[in-house]
Amino acid sequence: MLEVNHLSISFLQYEKGLKQQQLKVIKDLSVSVHSGEILAVVGSSGSGKSLLAHAILGILPTNATTEGTIYFDGVKLTPEKKEEFRGKEISFVPQSVNFLDPLMRVGTQVRNAARGASTSAQRKAFERLRLAKDVEQKFPFQLSGGMARRVLASTAMVSGAKLIIADEPTPGMDPTVIKEALKYFRELADSGCTVLMITHDIGAALEIADKIAVFYAGTTVESAMVNDFSGDGRLLRHPYSKALWRALPQNDFLPIPGSQPLPYANLPGCLFEPRCAFATTECRQDEPKPREIRNGIVRCIHAT
Amino acid sequence: MKNMIKFILKKTIRMVSLLIALCIISFLLISYSPIDPIQAYVGADMMRVGPEQRDKIAEYWGLDQSPLEQFVQWGSRVLQGDLGTSMIYRRPVADIISEKFLNSIILMSLAWLLSGIIGFIIGSIAAMKKDTWIDRTIKWYCYTLASTPTFWIGLLFLMIFAAWLDWFPIGLGVPAGVIAEDVTIGDRIKHLILPTLTLSMIGIANIALHTRQKLIDILSSDYVLFAKARGEKGFVLFWRHGLRNVALPAITLQFAAFSELFGGAVIAETVFSYPGLGQATVEAGLRGDVPLLLGIVIFSAIFVFIGNLVADLIYRLVDPRIREGKFL
Question: Where do the ABC transmembrane type-1 domain residues begin and end (chain B) (predicted)?
Answer without folding.
Answer: 101-315
